[in-house]
Amino acid sequence: MPTEIELKLRLPADSIVRLQRHPLLKSLSTSRPVAKKIHTVYYDTSDYDLKRNNVAFRLRRIGKNWIQSIKGGGSAVAGLHQRYEWEAPVLGAQPEFKKIPNSALGRIFDSDTLCEQLRPLFTTEFKRSTRSLRFMDHTEAELCLDQGKIVAGNVSMPFCEIELELKSGSPLPLFQLALDLLPAVPLRLESVSKAERGYRLASGDKPPMVKAAQVSIVTEMSSGEAFQVIVRNCLDHLHSNEAGMLECGDIEYLHQMRVALRRVRSAFSIFSKAFSKSAFVPVTQELKWLSGQLGPARDWDVFVTETLADICTQFPGHAEMMVLQEKCEQIRRHHNDVARKAIGSTRYTEMMLRLGAWLNAESWPVPPGLPVSTGLLEVRAKMPAKEFSTGLLAHRHKQLKKYGRKLKNLSPRALHSMRIVAKKQRYAAEFFAALYPHGKTKRYIKSLAELQDVLGGMNDTVVAGQLLSELPAGENRSGEHEAIGIVLGWAASVALAEKTKLNRTWAGFERNSPFW
User: Fold this and answer.
1) Sign of the C-alpha dihedral, residues 308, 305, 503, 416?
2) Average pLDDT in the 467-482 region?
3) φ and ψ at 99, to 5 degrees?
4) Rounded Cα gap, residues 44 and 72, in angstroms
C-alpha cells in the first residue's frame, strides 16, 4: 500500500495572493496552477469505530468523478505527515466495500455489521489550486493550496492550508521551501488533518491532551538511528499539544509541552556524548529559549492551582489570603499569555521547521541553519544503541547513588541537582526501555518516577518562596505579609514531611536493581 508523505502548513486567507506571487514559488513551478472544486464526505459509525482504529474513510467528488479513499497508520512530526493511503474510483456517492483491498487497513471493513453502520459524519468543501514543483536536487513535489470549510450538521469551520506532497526525492526541500517563504507569508505547521478537525467539529470535543508515547527503537539500531527516532517522538509529543495550548485554557496542554521540551533537551544532552557537541548548539539554544518562555507559566500554574489552592481551603474567608490568591492569579495569566505568544510566534514556527529539516537531512545530524555538508557523524553514532544506552544508564545511576549516600545532609540546591539527575535518568530509561526486559525496566522507571515526585514536591516549596518574592508591593503590606507568612509556613511544613518521605522513597529505589 502506498505511503503518502506531505508537509502541511496553514496560513491566513489574506496571505494567499502574497504566496501565489512569491518569486521562489514561481521559479520552482513546472506547471501552471490548476484550480478545481472538491467535495468530500467522511464516513464512520456513531461510536467512531474507524477513528478508534486510526482509519479515515471518505468519498471525494472532483468534477463529475468520485474516488473512494482509506487512510490510516503513519505519523505526523513537525508538520510532516506520513500515512498509508489507498484509493479507487467508484460510480457515485455511495461506498463500494467490494473495492476495498485485502490489506491491514482494509480488514477492518470485513465486518458486515460495521459496514452497515457507516454513515456520513461530516463533509469538506473547498477550492484546490495545484501546481507541480521541482527543486535543485531533483526532488519533485505537488503544492496544493486549499481554501474552504468543514461542515458537520449545523456547524462549520473555515480552513486555509498548503499541502506539499512529496512525489520523489527527499522531504528536506519541502521544509526549506517553507523556511524561505516564512518571512513573507505567516505560515504555521499543521499537525492535524482535515479528517481529525472534522471529527472534533462533529463531536464538539477539544483537541486531545497528548502524553508521551513509547519510543519504538530496536536492538538493530545504531545510537544515531535511535537518536533520530527519539527526537521525532519528542517533537511529536510537543507538536500534538500545540493546538490545545493555543485554543483552550486547560493548563495540562502547557504541562505536556513543557514535558516534551524537557524530554527533547534531555535527548540532546544524552547524545552529545555520541556526536560533536557543536552540532547541537543551534538546536539547544532555540529549545532553551522556548523553555524559558514556558517555564514561568508552568511554575505559576502549579503554585496557584495546587499549592495556593490547597492552602486557601484551610483558611476559608481569610480576606488577605483571597487578595493574595487573586494577585497571584493575575501573574499566572500574564505568564500563560507570554507562553501562548511564544508558541504562536514566527520564531517557534521557524524552530520547528528547522528541526524538521534537520531530521530529514540525508547527511545527518546537521546543525539547523548550516549547510547539509557540515554534518558531523562520529564513530560513537555508529555504536549499537543498546551498547550506548547501557553505558549511559550505568553512569547516571552511579551519579544518583552518590547523592543517595549523603541524602540526610543535602542542601536544597543539592536536592534540586539530584532531582535533575533523576529526571534525566528517567527520560533515558524511558527512551531505551524497548531494548531491555519489560518487567525490570517498568519497576525501575516506576521507582524513579516516585523519587522524582518527592523531589519535585520539595522543589515546589522552594519555588513557592521564589514566586512570592516576585509579587508587586500592595497597599496593605501588613496584611499581605501575613498571607505570605501563612504560605511560607505551609511550604516549610510540607518540605519537612517530604524530606521524611524522601528517605523511604530512596530506600524503595535502591531495592530496584538496574535493568541494563
Assistant:
1) negative
2) 76
3) -90, 0
4) 14
- pTM score, whole prediction: 0.88
Maximum separation of any 2 CA atoms in the chain, in Å: 80
Q: Scanning the structure block, which residue is given the C-alpha cell 557537541?
A: 277
Give me the DSSP letters along 504-515.
HHHHHHHTS---
Distance CA 424, CA 431 (A): 10
Residue type, 212: A
**Pick from 78-87, 371-380, 471-480: least confident:** 371-380
Identify the three-state secondary structure at position 224.
helix
Q: Is residue 502 within 8 Å of 459, Cβ to Cβ?
A: no
Which residue is listed with cell 527516532?
Answer: 229
Q: What is the DSSP string of 161-189?
A: EEEEEEEES-SHHHHHHHHHHTTTS--EE
What is the separation, in whole angstroms, between the first and last Cα of the chain? 38
Place of cell 552518590: 402
pLDDT at residue 218 greater than cutoff 90? yes
- Position 388: which residue type? F
- The pLDDT, as a whole number, for residue 232 is 92
pLDDT digit string, tens, across residues 192-208: 889 999 999 999 999 98
Strands (E), 135-291: 140-152, 155-168, 188-189
CA torsion angle 258 263 269 274 (round to 10): -150
Question: What would the pLDDT profile of 19-43 be if each residue is shown by its tens digit?
Answer: 999 999 999 999 999 999 999 999 9
Cα separation of 373 and 383, whole Å? 22
In contact, 230 and 214? CB cutoff 8 Å:
no
Instruction: Quote the Cα angle for 389-390-391, to 5°.
Output: 90
- What count of Cα atoms within 13 Å lies in the side-chain half-sphere of residue 192? 19
User: Cell for 35?
Assistant: 484550480
Distance CA 124, CA 18 (A): 25
What average pLDDT does range 399-405 have in this prediction?
94
Looking at residue 408, its pLDDT comes to 87
Side chain identity, residue 195 = A
Residues 93-125: tens digit of each pLDDT: 899 988 887 676 667 888 888 899 999 999 999
Q: Are 385 and 222 in contact (CB under 8 A)?
A: yes
Could you identify the residue written with the cell 524530554? Answer: 263
Cβ(145)–Cβ(129) below 8 Å? yes
Helix (H) or strand (E) holding 194: helix 194-203
DSSP string, 455-495: HHHHHHHHHHHHHHTTPPP-S-HHHHHHHHHHHHHHHHHHH
- Comparing CA positions, the residue from 294, 276, 263, 313 lying closest to residue 427 is 263
Residues β-bridged to residue 133: 29, 141
- The C-alpha torsion from 414 through 415 and 420 to 426, rounded to 10°, is 140
Alpha-carbon distance of 301 to 309, in angstroms, equals: 11
Could you give the CA distance from residue 332 to residue 298 in angstroms, rounded to a whole number?
9
In this structure, the strands spanning 188-189 and 3-10 are antiparallel
